[in-house]
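step: validate -> pass
step: tokenize input -> pass
step: predict -> running
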Amino acid sequence: MDISEIRKLIRLVQQSDVTEIEVTEGKSTVRISRQSSAPVMVAAAQQPMIAAPAAAATSPTTSPSLIETPPEVCGENVVKSPMVGTFYAASSPDDDPFISIGSSVKKGDVICIVEAMKLMNEIEAEYDGTVEKVLVKNADPLEYGQPLFVITPA
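step: predict -> pass
step: emit ->
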């Protein structure tokens, strides 16, 4: 595989929603992966490492829930996302949310689901309390450590 073919692959990744592509040709394997706004290329052990050109800088988008999130307040505890994924307030679209503002929760109660890599992870309350605020909307994408709820301990 020559450098012009590799450059075409880099442009393909830059100009599409594809986040990773791997091409094997004979004994050579090239994998191009977009981490943030710049693609990163990793070559197989048989090939020398080739650095990808830096992509044009783009301004990162911030979800409204991150902007409006209040800081931790004395007497309240902020429950944060334990992983990157998608927030779900209920186990199915037709079901009622696990919790809402004013709900009482007990340690071990399921308070939401975070989908990560097609796995549904039930997030449980770590202590007894009352839900004061819900900081995200159903089906919102989540970052690691993003505030989800404010629960006042009982």
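step: describe -> Residues 1-59 form one domain.
step: cleanup -> pass
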